[in-house]
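Figure S7 source data.
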Amino acid sequence: MRKMMKYRLYPTDAQAEALDGQLAEACRLYNAALQERHDAYKREGLSLNYYTQASQLKEIRAEGASALANFSSSQDVLRRVDKTFKAFFRRVKTGAEKPGYPRFKSRRRFDSYTFPSWGDGCRLSDAGRLYLQGVGHLKVKWHRPLDGTVKTVTVKRQAGTWFVCFSVEYVVEALPGNDARVGIDVGLTDFATLSTGETIANPRHYRKAQKTLRIAQRRVARRQRGGRNRRKAVVLLQKAHAHVQNQRADFHHKTARTLMNTYGVIAVEDLRIKGLASGMLAKAVHDAGWSAFFNKLAAKAEEAGRLLVKVNPRGTSQTCLCGAEVRKTLAQRWHQGPACGLSTARDHVSAQLISGLGLSLLGLT
Ligand SMILES: [Zn+2]
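Tokens for the predicted zinc ion complex:
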């Protein structure tokens, strides 16, 4: 399987400048390729493809018009343009959404470029540094060992900080078999409730960070457009956002990992998060980031050889374990079964129902 491994880079000032330069060149090439396609279409009704554009690359480089150090990286930029156009034509064809013609990218928004094959313009030096063509030997924070076979290398600028992302192919080691089954109900008061009755508290990173974000946002708004100080304020805002995102992703990863290690069969709701997120509960739903969590859970389940089943959540909040309908408003957090006398937390009942639905879907009951 493939996975992404991301490490922080510590470039010297000169190297950071070189990295910025490479990004700017990649951006220039991207925009030029876009322009060329646009012109060809306008003038002659021609639709250029990747190969026609890539065939000119040698000449362009010979003229010195593209200073992106690595040839394959230049090709990769053109491939990106090709991808955007293909997606555009696909949207035009289906007509389902607004097609949105591919746009030029601003230098500041163009924040990554890729070395499509490991060893071509990028390699590790003996001292554990990362060599990038046109930049030099960069210091890397190896916070975890790089395992698997490196396929591609992407250099990224995020909130004023540099990272390298290795796309690696690795052999999956399935976890030892496990029969333990669990249903998970995601909620607003707690992040999740398990059918075992255990609850996982909601960390609410976003709420806590909201004050900081608001201050950072206001600082940006007060600074003059196009000014140097505004740009600095934007970087601080990006940093604040990145911090919240990192915290959330970390929480999701750890929670998913614990569940994978404990259970062999996991049932979750097939949430139409979108429908929920547009309503009044938007902030809380967004905060919890359930869909992002489920995605991580699914990826880990596949990797570990676990069963993850999504069930239709309809009725799971309004039904008792005995099958009787028990209506509850959203504010009612406690379940009281009038017929069977079951008395427990509302989400606990839901989690058990989800577990049951999952098992019957899998034919395990
Ligand atoms: Zn009941």
